[in-house]
Every structure is written in C-alpha cells, then in structure tokens.
Design brief:
The chain has 7 helices and 5 strands; from the N terminus they run E-H-H-E-H-H-E-H-H-E-H-E. It is α/β, with parallel strands linked by helices and 131 residues long. A 5-stranded parallel β-sheet has the order 3-2-1-4-5. Helix 5 crosses helix 6. The chain is globular, with a radius of gyration of 14 Å. The model has no long low-confidence stretch (mean pLDDT 95).
Length: 131
Amino acid sequence: MTDYLFDTHALVWWWTGDKALPGAVSREISDESNTVYVSAVSAWEIATKCRIGKWQAAVPVFENFEELAGADGFIELSVSVAHGLLAGSLPGEHRDRFDRMIAAQAIHDEMVVITRDPALAGLGCATFWSE
C-alpha cells in the first residue's frame, strides 16, 4: 500500500485520458490498495493556467475538479502552515512554486509524487513514474 500525491500534469492526464500517462502509472492509481491524494495546489495551478489561457486542455478539469476527485475516490489535500514553511525552505534552484509546494506536501505527509518531472525528485520527495 502506497500513499500517492498527483503532480498537476499527471492528474490532468489521468482525467483527460491522455496517452502521456503510462499504463503502469494508471495501474498504480487504479489499485485500490493505494491511497491517492490531489492537492489544493493542483486546483490552484489548473485554475491559474486556464484563466491566463495557457492550458486549454485542462478547462474541463478546472470546471469539474471536485466532482472528478470525488468520482475517483481521491482524497483532497489542503495546504497547511507546515507545508508552506517546508516549501519555502526546500533547497535547490527549482522556482516553480506549484512544484515546490507539492514536493513539500509529499515530504511532510510521507507520500510518493506521481510525476514525469525529474525536478520534483531533486527537491527531495519520492516520485513514481514508469514508462
């Protein structure tokens, strides 16, 4: 049993059926012995990028985020003060505030991030991706 936290792109790929999400990753997400979390940070990132016109493919996800999470049985993860303090103090040059917070949440709450982005692992969190 593993506690997984979605990176935002992987989450959107899951909900839109994008082929960028490998079958091995889909199987882990679908495995009922695992617990899958979605971060408030992903909701914020999706809403921001849809608002500024940078991620049209994510508009259906933006419009139905809570319903999609509920339908899949994913657990919503809020941002805490502890998460914020850790995100702000993580070492490294990675400047993406969304990635830093997701990494901090994963580290603090002992989760594995489902991500294709190797920069997240560079922030010190455990990651999973299998082509």
